Amino acid sequence: MLDALKFFLFVILLLVTIMLNQHVTSKRSAELDLELLWQIQDTKGVYVIQNQTVPSGVYTALEQSMVIGSLLEEYNDVNTSWVGETDWTYRTNLSCLAEDYKYVLLTLHGVDTFASVSLGEQLLGTTENMFVRYRYDVKQLCDGDTHELRLQFRSPVVEARERAKDRALPIVPTCPPDVYHGQCHVNLIRKMQASFAWDWGLSAPSMGIWKPIRLEYYSSALIRDLTVVISELEVNGSERWSIAVRVYLETGLASAQVHGLLTFKIIGVPFLNEADQTLAVTNKTNEHGELLVEHGLTVARNAVERWWPNGYGKQTLYSLYVRWEDEAVNGVKLPNPDTMISEKVIRIGFRTVQLSQERTTDGLMFYFKVNDVPIFAKGSNWIPSSVLPERSYDSNYVKFLLYAARDAHMNMLRVWGGGLYESDHFYRLADELGLLIWHDLMFACSMYPSEPDFLRTVQEEVRQNVRRIQHHPSVAVWATNNENEVALRQNWYKTNANYTAYYTQYVELYVRTVLPTVEANDPWRTVLLSSPSNGDQSLKERFIATNPQDPRYGDVHYYNYFLDGWNAAQYRGGRFVSEYGFQSFPAYTSWPEARSYRQAELSQLINHRQHSPLGNAPILTMIELNLPLPRDPSADGYWPELIYLSQLSQAMIVKTETEVYRARRVEHGTMGALYWQLNDVWIAPSWSSIEYGGTFKLLHVWLRDIFAPEHLVAFVNERRQLEVVAVRDTLQPDVQLWDVELRIHRYGSFRLVERIRQERIRVPANTVELVSTWDVYGHLAKQGLHPADHLVLLYAYLHPADGLPSQPAPQPIAENFALLDKLKNIRQEQRVQPTVSISVVSAVCSEQSNLTSVSLEVSVSAPALFVYLQLTPENSTLKQCQFSRNGFLQFQPVRTVQLTCVDPGCRNKIQARDITVRTVNELLVR
Fold it and tell me: What span is annotated as the signal peptide, if there is one (predicted)?
């Protein structure tokens, strides 16, 4: 009775803890973070950095001690390359007592990458994979004396170079393009592949303790991981959820007998069978001290709410609590019974996810069904939030980026295969925000070796990370690599001469090692062999499809830099477009020291950071095709103007492409649009919609409309018809009636040329509906109107319910625009230069949240094209500033825009003079 009361009180305490802290993950017998004070130094003792805490990295420590400037400033990516080519040592003093604990383990959750680990004079072991957790038995050394804990890091650059020597078959590509300013042979080591440079990122061959390092004390078994498989079933007419739980127990590093009791609780949810609550375990761990225990739970379907992606319903989560208690706890009186108890809490969601690939008349479909509802996947690709791994887990910045994705109506992010397995915080937020995760394993754009030692560490990497991540309901699918199937098939790296050998390595790594390891640890999800791939069709073609980019199967990556990206007629799409996009430059005020640079100096810096082998040519070509292109790089306003036009062009290209994909949901079976890429790791030309640090490019502001759940899409199709499509991702009601209005405007006047209205358009739930295809050019010609002088503004309204009294003027549920000719072709008489003025209506700053909110009125004397608002450089202390609208068409005299910024201490008072304005008009009238 006493034990039952104690357990009841514990559960009450646990409930309170969960309510107060929704991010509870585990409670262990005893666990000590070795943040301590570490010393870091190079092998020659030239640089000695004291009093460092971990997680840590060498670059970060050198910056903080001012040995080097910020890695992200000016040319420091090259100037500091010596750091990654040097060996470094981390050391601290450690005193511990094993006392009566049976196990004392030193657990390193993330070491980047090659290190020898010693305690005192004893070498504990070596590390070689930054994605793997390493454990060492230190019980005999926990004797109360002080010992030096030492990690001696070897340069990953040198290690990769050594591994490349004397290989009969080179692992290609051996080096990145010269324009990357990067390092070679990163594909030979298990490290973040982008850390040796990428086409969007700098070279930063990091080293350090990038995740926590801990002492773990316990005397029975430790719960390391919990995984779940949740499925719906019906038994004798009773609808229920089945939860298959896997509990991974550890007993140090060696086999041991375990006798005890596992207790299971889903907080606030009763089990259908009370006997499911406990499971007696009598077994033996394997030679590595590991034991898998499987257990089944069932709950009534109506006892829980479903988890839904963003935009489709609530993201309801439940806490699954599992407790291990050794049988000795109740058998004898122990001085420290807690050392024989281990507990873990994870949050789970009740949902089903199916990747449907049913056959069609011309191929296979490829789309996700969540809770049996087909989902059009809207979103982006995620790269690490920092090029330095220890900074990539910055919880506040990760939260900012994921909220920005959610607020732009995204429901899926693809964790790209050249980065990291993300932090627990990242996946928890994805669960909370309803962001489905397409998860690559960490292999990208390369061939890889297949020697036994390499496969062994890869297998451990996949096993550990899949188990850690698996329980999150946001994870929708795994893919074993990024672009390696298409690279091999299309001879990206000159592999055709040895195709059979490279094919054999591919199959050995992905088909025989990674794939079965993922499936063994996560039977809940589909595993794709690559992205892009033909899905099931690739399997039928011996794992390498004849055309991995076939739009009739699987997913595709689509980039075309010299066809006119503003022209909707060039986009065909595929079943699922998991990468597409276009580059732009970050805002002028975002460039390091931009205010003090002369034009030539800024050009040199931008060109240095432009890592695309094509350089700036695609950006300039696309601007020249559609807009007035600034011609004189020496002119004072050259870069501010070019940056503005690049962001406008990027936004127009991604808008056009995305809207075609959404409109082709029925016609082409397109069910996914994930643009490349959400975020950046430095200020540089790239495909991102959010600059490093949090500034939104025009594209990200536009995404709120581009991805809106109810949207009106309009574009000129391949038949030169204006195609108008109503898009609904919403589920309720089953049918809406829309009134759609098309307004033809001249560029030079507020006055409307013509209004065309279609009423009672029937728009079903969760699909698209063609509103009309209209010969707009023929219509204008009949009236003697020139297309270059006009554009179409479109609005959709909910049709008023019949029989109700008249209502105030309805607000549009969707609005859009369609250009009928290139902006550079607007004829002279329609080229007007409006006077644009900004006034501050109100400004409020919360000292509690450090968030300032400013209401602005934008007034124009004539129609203004793509009004671009930006804070002046003098407001540099403001962070993550966002305009509610930007880059907008203003065909009314006054428009209200909200500006929000993070303003620590509420020190800034934003005034009208703090905001600059640009329009396309000013370039047209020049």
Answer: 1-26
CA distances (Å), origin 46, targets 41, 92, 156, 521: 7, 18, 20, 46
Share of the chain above pLDDT 70, in %: 96
How many Cα atoms sit within 13 Å of 359 on the Cβ side? 2
List active site positions: 483, 579
Q: How far apart are CA 208 and CA 169, in angstroms?
A: 31
- Grade residue 594 by pLDDT with cuts at 50, 70 and 90: low
CA atoms of 447 and 719, how far apart (whole Å)? 43
Mean pLDDT of all residues in 482-506: 98
Residue 659 and residue 673: Cα distance in Å, rounded? Answer: 9
Please state, in angstroms and rounded to a whole number, the distance separating the CA atoms of residues 623 and 867. 17
Retrieve residue 656's tokens: 């056009």
List CB contacts of 342: < 8 A, sequence separation 6 or more: 27, 28, 29, 218, 220, 221, 222, 223, 249, 323, 324
- The maximal CA–CA distance of the chain, rounded, in angstroms, is 98
Mean local confidence (pLDDT), 419-444:
98
Residue-level pLDDT at 598 = 84
- Which of 707, 702, 788, 796 minimizes the C-alpha distance to 743? 796
pLDDT of residue 805: 60
Contacts of 776 (CB under 8 A, 6+ apart): 716, 721, 722, 787, 792, 820
Q: Assess whether pLDDT exceeds 60 at residue 7.
A: no
CA distances from 750 to 228, 693, 867 (A): 60, 38, 15
Provide the residue type at 757 as one letter.
Answer: R
Q: Are 527 and 478 in contact (CB under 8 A)?
A: yes
Helices first, then strands: H and E counts in the chain: 20, 49
Lowest mean pLDDT among 415-429, 534-548, 805-819, 888-902: 805-819
End-to-end C-alpha distance for the chain, whole angstroms: 88
Only one residue has tokens 């039928």, namely: 540
Would you give the DSSP letter of residue 269? B
* Average pLDDT over the chain, rounded to an integer: 94
Distance CA 489, CA 495 (A): 9
C-alpha span between 15 and 877 (Å, rounded): 41
DSSP per-residue string spanning 870-910: EE-GGGTT-EEEEESS-SEEE-SSEEEEEEEEE-GGG----
Over the stretch 520-557, which tens digit does the pLDDT of each residue have? Answer: 999 999 999 999 999 999 999 999 999 999 999 999 99
Q: What is the pLDDT of residues 400-415, one digit of tens each?
A: 999 999 999 999 999 9
Q: Are 874 and 925 in contact (CB under 8 A)?
A: no
DSSP of 805-842: PP-SPPPPSEEEEEESS-GGG--GGG-----EEEEEEE
What is each CA distance from 802 to 329, 574, 726, 806, 814, in whole angstroms? 71, 40, 21, 10, 21
Q: What is the pLDDT of residue 449?
A: 98
Tell me the three-class secondary structure of 10-30, residue by residue: HHHHHHHHHHHCCCCCEECCE
